[in-house]
Amino acid sequence: MLDCVRNYVEQKGTMRMHTKKEVLAEALNLPPIERAELIEELLTSFEFPDRRRLDRLWAEEADDRIKAFKQGEFETIPMEKVFAKINR
Q1: The predicted structure's pLDDT at residue 57
Q2: Average pLDDT in the 30-41 region?
Q3: pLDDT tens-digit profile of 38-61?
Q4: What CA–CA distance (Å, rounded) separates 78 from 67?
Q5: 77 C-beta neighbours (distance < 10 Å), count
Q6: Which residues contact 69 (CB under 8 A, 6 or more apart)?
Q7: Separation between Cα atoms, residue 24 and residue 61, nearest integer Å
Q8: Rg (Cα) of the chain, in Å, rounded?
Q9: What distances in angstroms separate CA 54 from CA 11, 20, 42, 66, one per listed residue?
Q10: Do the Cβ atoms of 4 and 19 come closer than 8 Å?
């Protein structure tokens, strides 16, 4: 890819490729939630043989964590405190 991302953009009537550095710089300027959504979209764009198995394992892990939360097995942090830390 020669240090370029495949996305083309129209700029001043011409087409050019964004470099990875440009894309990263733009992505880092997004709000935290949008950055997380972008990461999720990028990660889900990969297809590989064990994808479904890994998705199933992550779903099981999420279920286990929810169950542990409901049973009071770990300390929680208030949402406001978490978002305050993210938005610094």
Answers
A1: 94
A2: 92
A3: 998 998 888 778 888 888 999 999
A4: 18
A5: 8
A6: 76
A7: 30
A8: 19
A9: 40, 28, 16, 18
A10: yes
Half-sphere exposure of 76 (CA within 13 A, CB side): 11
Question: 3-27 pLDDT, tens per residue?
Answer: 343 444 444 456 678 899 999 999 9
End-to-end C-alpha distance for the chain, whole angstroms: 34
**Sole residue written with tokens 């169950």:** 67
DSSP the chain: -TTEEEEEEEETTEEEEEEHHHHHHHHHTS-HHHHHHHHHHHHHT---TTHHHHHHHHHHHHHHHHHHHHTT-S----HHHHHHHHT-
